[in-house]
Amino acid sequence: MGKTRKPYPPEFRRQMVELVRAGRTPESLAREFEPTAESIRNWVKQADRDEGRREDGLTSPEREELRRRLRRENRQLKIEREILAKAAAWFARETDSVPPKSSSS
């Protein structure tokens, strides 16, 4: 597995995008700076989406909204699962039987 590092600051990413748009190649920037050429290309693509130059993906605000919504739904599902587990345990005690274990959890 590759090593993880802190994300590059937004200003640094913007500068890389500007340099690519000014004519530098992602490969030359990757040799001079630390990010990979693929990372730089991805930043350019995302900047193009955010500015309306591309329509082949989500803009940054759309991605953030989706991320927030999925985290909220995930939190809710964990709460519901916990409630159901407690209810199942309560019913098992009340009926003096233990339900068979589910292979899906």
TrEMBL record:
InterPro entries: Homeodomain-like_sf, RD_transcriptional_regulator, Transposase_8, WH-like_DNA-bd_sf
Gene source species: Methylomarinovum tepidoasis
UniProt region (Disordered), positions on chain: 43-66
Pfam families (alphabetical): HTH_Tnp_1 (PF01527)
GO terms for MF: DNA binding; transposase activity
Domain of life: Bacteria
GO biological process: DNA transposition
The name this protein goes by in its record: Transposase
Regions of compositional bias (Basic and acidic residues) in chain numbering: 46-66
Similarity remark: Belongs to the transposase 8 family.
